[in-house]
Design goal:
Blueprint: H1 16-19, H2 22-42, H3 48-59, H4 65-72, H5 76-88, E1 92-97, E2 100-108, H6 110-130, H7 136-153
Antiparallel strand pairs: 1-2
Helix pairs in contact: 2-6, 3-4, 3-6, 4-5
Length: about 160
């Protein structure tokens, strides 16, 4: 018995005018990258937002809730919810700041460091999959161009070697 695979309808193409737009492509690729990342991170029980918080804590230069939120450009209320979730999983620990009882300091736990190592591996895998069509030179070039745009439009991306306008 021959089984014929069902014919799948072709996906409609974006209008040519939109495909000619660099900002349109950046936006659509951003959606694609975010959707893929959210799906992959969801399987870990964490999100890219949790990952970013753990990275900031591992960097060691920020330890108060406010400084973490500012470093990531997160709303402080949003950060409290993320920290609650990380604390429930014992990945971070919060304490009252002995110098200022109104503030909380946050630190990465040993379990948090192990989780961060796994998230870094996942992030690298996602990036490699997304950038698979590009060779190493093209990846570096793309990154440099995106970084230039980010430095211009997103002050949080400043390399620090140039004054922020």
């Amino acid at each position: 018995m021959n089984v014929i695979a069902p014919i799948r309808p072709l996906r409609p193409r974006f209008p040519a005018e939109l495909v000619k737009s660099t900002t349109f492509l950046l936006k659509r690729l951003g959606f694609t990258a975010k959707d893929s990342a959210m799906e992959a991170y969801e399987r870990t029980g964490l999100s890219p937002y949790h990952h970013a918080v753990l990275v900031v804590l591992d960097e060691g230069s920020r330890d108060t809730q406010g400084s973490i939120a500012d470093a990531l450009g997160y709303d402080r209320g949003q950060l409290v919810g993320l920290l609650d979730e990380l604390e429930e999983q014992r990945l971070v620990e919060r304490r009252r700041d002995p110098k200022d009882r109104r503030r909380h300091t946050v630190r990465l736990t040993a379990e948090g460091k192990r989780a961060l190592a796994k998230l870094r591996t996942l992030s690298g895998k996602l990036e490699n999959e997304f950038l698979a069509p590009l060779d190493e030179r093209e990846r570096k070039q793309l990154h440099e161009l995106l970084l230039r745009l980010a430095e211009h439009h997103l002050p949080h991306c400043s390399r620090g070697d140039k004054p922020v306008a």
